[in-house]
Structures are given as C-alpha cells and as structure tokens.
Task: structure prediction
Amino acid sequence: MLSYVFMKILELRPRSYDRRINRLSGHRTRGIKEQVAAAVRPGGKVLEIGCGTGELASLLVSSGCTVDAFDLSPSMVTAARERIAAEGLEGRLTVHQMGVEAMDTLPGGLYDAVVSTLVFSELAHSERRFALRYAHELLRPDGCLVIADEVVPRSLGRRVLQALFRLPMVAATYLITRSSTHPLRNLAGEVSEAGFVVQKEQRSHGDTFAIVIARRIDKHVAP
Ligand SMILES: C[S@@+](CC[C@H](N)C(=O)[O-])C[C@H]1O[C@@H](n2cnc3c(N)ncnc32)[C@H](O)[C@@H]1O
Result:
C-alpha cells in the first residue's frame, strides 16, 4: 500500500482518480471501500468526510443509506456531482464543498454513521482531532465511525522498511504537489481519545493499513 504516497498526484485528475488509485494499489482500493460500506448498517443516514469522487458514497447508497458527503477540493466535488447525475443518485447523495474545519456548522446528533477513507493521512494532527471531535457530536448515540487509512506498522523492522520505501515516493510527490501524506501512528488511539469506543481495528497489507470501527456510546447517567 506504499502506492498511496502517490495519492496527492492522482488527486490532480479527479476524473481518472478512482481508476488509477485502484490500479496502483493492485485493485485493493475498491475492496477497502466495500469493506467500509459493509461495516455500516444498511438504510441509515451517513456522513462521509473527504468523499473524493463519491465512490464509497455510491456504494452506501446501494445499501439503502442516505449520504451527506463533503470534500475540500472543488474538482473532486465536481466529479462527485457528475457521478450523482450519471448514476441517478439525486436525493440519496448530497455533496458539499467544504473542509473538515467546517464540520461544526453541520447539525449535531443526526447521523447513524460517519465514514472516511484515505483522508486522515492527509490531515494535520489538529485537523484530525477536530474532525473526530465533531464526528462524535454529529453521530446519534450508538452511531458508528469507520475510518480506513495508511498507518505506521507496529514492529520496528516494518516501520524502517516503510520509511525507506516511502522516502523516494514522498520526495517525488512533494516535488509535483508540494504536499504529502503521513501514515498514522495511532489512529485507534486518536479515535478513542475523541470519546469513541473502538470495537475493531483490522490491520492488513503488511500492517501498513487499518480499518478502525468505533462507536459513540454515551455513558448512561442515572436519574
Ligand atoms: C486520497 S483522496 C481520497 C478520496 C476518497 N475518500 C477515496 O477514498 O477515494 C483524499 C481526499 O481528501 C480530501 N481532503 C483533504 N483534506 C481535506 C480537508 N481538510 N477537508 C475535507 N477534505 C479533504 C481531498 O480533497 C481528497 O479528495
């Protein structure tokens, strides 16, 4: 999954983004989105953070969910809206152009699930904290959070290998986009610090990728 370093380059062309990232990742990206969609109860109301072209949102709509999605990039939002028109998703999928820093403007306690794939590794620590804090506020009690992203492996040997293999790709990506991605050191820990109960952390791809499934469980206060 080291190929995810090149995400920032592929994002420059939203129309071919899904096809290229899927090919570059050995056709795993689509499978990851299917796993994330499968972790969400069918038929609920879902918020997607950083929806890109709306591929995951479209899968969620297929399972009966209604999705509000947002992305910072105007060209990604345009591609997602083209998908809505092409796939007839009007009324089931709404896409807004905004960044995570505007999550405090969304109505609280409304969503059954908040999902995100390959976005948190692009965010600064403060943005991740903010996004998780508001994901918690926006969910209904017992709502579910599912985040999938590149992570730092647990063993020292794998961490060294990841850093060595990533370095030239990070340099090339930075030269072209002036930005990079950062595998997450403690995704499950950040999720639980935001008040969630982590139910599952599914690691894959040589321990460099994780899907974290967590729940907003409000403590019952005795009357
Ligand atoms: C690698 S793409 C992943 C897109 C999609 N989630 C997927 O898995 O196909 C990362 C996306 O995160 C968006 N993004 C980056 N920073 C963001 C922010 N602060 N707020 C909202 N979206 C952001 C980018 O515009 C981009 O569409």
Remarks:
- The chain is about 40% helix and 20% strand.
- Helices lie at 7-10, 14-24, 29-38, 55-62, 74-87, 125-138, 156-177, 187-193.
